[in-house]
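Weekly modeling sync, notes
Attendees: S.R. (lead), two postdocs, one rotation student

Agenda item 3: backlog of single-chain predictions. S.R. asked that every request posted to the team notebook include the full sequence so nobody has to chase files. The rotation student volunteered to paste the first one in as an example of the format we agreed on. Action items at the bottom.

Example entry:
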Amino acid sequence: MNANEQMLQETVTRISGVNVRKCMRCGKCSGTCPAYGEMEYHPHQFVYMVEKGQIEKLMASKSLYKCLTCLACVDRCPRGVEPAKLVEAVRLMVIRQQGMNHLKPDDLPGKLDDEIPQQALMAAMRKYSK
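Predicted structure, as returned to the notebook:
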């Protein structure tokens, strides 16, 4: 693994808080995934690829946007590995790479709408302020 791959791997694991080495590759996360048929890389493969530092491959994959973030993989994992958090972390890295990161509190009033649930607003703040 080269220095760039290692830096990307460390960033994903830091953002997600997931210990990919806990994965025993049982595939239960993938077996329960409702988007399994649509994904190029399935949840257990996603965890393995993060462990091996293949983040750039994941960042370029359409699987990143096929994940429903339903957390079924998280519930099913017997070891507490959270593949959905890894997917979110890699998505965030793509956003950062595109320069569309870091929503500032002063930007919020212009984006508010009476129809936006507070939960969505708080999720956006957490996501874009990391």
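Discussion: group reviewed the output briefly. The two ends are 26 Å apart (CA to CA).
Action items: rotation student to repeat for the remaining queue; S.R. to check formatting next week.
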